[in-house]
């Protein structure tokens, strides 16, 4: 899923409104298994409850201003994509296992491309989503190098010297962790029975990566594609819909270029990887500036 262009250009104050209102009115409809769309009245009430002004979102008669209409539209968009598009894409462990086996027969992966989860006993199994991602990237990277389990921090250089080094290790980098074209994170939690702090931390880790990459882009003109891939229907949908809302917010804030939910990796990732290859070869041929100063490439 890529962001809706209407909301990408909103300022940081817009996202301050989204977060404040979401916290006050709630992200979900309790007991109905759906994401909430606050009315303009609820938006205004949420601001007033924080002793904040509300006339910029609704006039004295409760009619939305232009700013209020954009907020309403975004909350509706967020709920629509999560309720109708994201939820059906999320898989449980049985579905992911079946897909993993099918793609293994198709792609014949290398053993080193199949990581295992950290569970014990009958839950011990391949890390299904990560393995699926690795298989698809390997199959469509046209023989280019790729690091599926980086053991060092991602670094960007200029004139042969470090320009920026990210604070965290990413889950994958193409073609490598030095001046990558793309980096990604995988968050799969098939056997988690509650939405605990470890899962929440995974969202904030991707946010940190996105903020560092935003700073790199804005101050140095260096862009790297940043992807987030998540799965596990029970964990994310039954327990963590509010964090799915945060992920959609993060997508539209520009901290991640695309989020792939569950089965969506099969549908979208091959095309995405082929675009990485095109960008890498354009850079190698000298059609783009050195040291990863790429013109951002479009992925439809």
Structure in words:
The protein is α/β, with parallel strands linked by helices. The protein has 2 domains: 5-89, no CATH class; 93-284, no CATH class. It is built from 10 helices and 8 strands. The protein has helices at 5-8, 12-25, 40-49, 66-89, 93-107, 128-140, 197-220, 233-239, 241-252, 264-284; strands at 28-29, 34-35, 155-158, 161-165, 172-174, 182-188, 225-231, 258-261. The protein has a 4-stranded mixed β-sheet, sandwiched between helices. It has a two-stranded antiparallel sheet with strand order 1-2. Strands 3-4 form a two-stranded antiparallel sheet. The longest helix is centred in the N-terminal third of the chain and has 24 residues, at 66-89. It is globular, with a radius of gyration of 20 Å. The model is unreliable at 290-300 (pLDDT under 50).
SSE blueprint and pairings:
Layout: H1 5-8, H2 12-25, E1 28-29, E2 34-35, H3 40-49, H4 66-89, H5 93-107, H6 128-140, E3 155-158, E4 161-165, E5 172-174, E6 182-188, H7 197-220, E7 225-231, H8 233-239, H9 241-252, E8 258-261, H10 264-284
Parallel strand pairs: 6-7, 7-8
Antiparallel strand pairs: 1-2, 3-4, 5-6
């Amino acid at each position: 899923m890529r962001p809706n262009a209407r909301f990408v250009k909103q300022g940081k104050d817009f996202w301050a409104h989204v977060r404040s209102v979401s916290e006050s009115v709630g992200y979900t409809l309790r007991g109905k298994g759906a994401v909430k769309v606050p009315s303009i009245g609820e938006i205004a009430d949420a601001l007033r409850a924080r002793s904040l002004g509300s006339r910029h979102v609704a006039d004295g008669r409760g009619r939305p201003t232009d700013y209020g209409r954009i907020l309403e539209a975004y909350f509706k968009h967020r709920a629509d994509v999560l309720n109708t598009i994201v939820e059906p894409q999320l898989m449980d462990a049985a579905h992911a296992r079946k897909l993993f086996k099918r793609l293994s027969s198709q792609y014949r992966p290398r053993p080193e491309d199949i990581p295992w989860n950290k569970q014990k006993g009958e839950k011990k199994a391949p890390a299904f989503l990560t393995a699926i991602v690795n298989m698809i990237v390997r199959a469509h990277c046209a023989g280019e190098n790729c690091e599926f389990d980086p053991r060092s921090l991602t670094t960007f250089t200029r004139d042969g010297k470090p320009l920026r080094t990210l604070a965290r290790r990413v889950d994958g980098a193409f073609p490598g962790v030095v001046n990558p074209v793309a980096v990604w994170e995988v968050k799969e939690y098939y056997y988690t029975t509650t939405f605990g702090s470890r899962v929440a931390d995974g969202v904030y880790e991707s946010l940190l990566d996105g903020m560092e990459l935003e700073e790199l882009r804005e101050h140095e003109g260096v862009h790297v594609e940043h992807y987030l891939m998540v799965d596990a229907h029970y964990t994310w949908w039954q327990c963590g819909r509010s964090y799915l809302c945060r992920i959609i917010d993060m997508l539209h804030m520009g901290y991640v270029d695309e989020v792939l939910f569950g089965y969506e990796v099969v549908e979208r990732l091959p095309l995405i990887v082929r675009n990485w290859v095109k960008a890498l070869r354009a850079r190698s041929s000298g059609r783009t500036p050195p040291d990863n100063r790429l013109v951002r490439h479009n992925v439809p």
